[in-house]
Amino acid sequence: MATFLRLLSPTTIPKDAPFLSSTLVPLQNPSSHSFFPSFSSIPTPDARRLCFKAQAVSGAVHGHSDRNVSDLVERPWKTNDARLVLEDGSIWRAKSFGASGTQVGEVVFNTSLTGYQEILTDPSYAGQFVLMTNPHIGNTGVNPDDEESRQCFLAGLVIRSLSICTSNWRCRESLGEYLAKRNIMGIYDVDTRAITRRLRQDGSLIGVLSTEESLTDEHLLDLARKWKIVGVDLITGVSCDAPYEWIEKTNTEWEFNKDYSHSENFHVVAYDFGIKHNILRRLAAYGCRITVVPSTWPASETLNLKPDGVLFSNGPGDPAAVPYAVQTVKEIIGKVPVFGICMGHQLIGQALGGRTFKMKFGHHGGNHPVGNHVNGRVEISAQNHNYAVDPASLPAGVEVTHINLNDNSCAGLACRELNLISLQYHPESSPGPHDSDPAFKEFIQLMKANKA
Ligand SMILES: NC(=O)CC[C@H](N)C(=O)O
Question: Under which main EC class is this enzyme filed (predicted)?
Answer without folding.
Answer: ligase
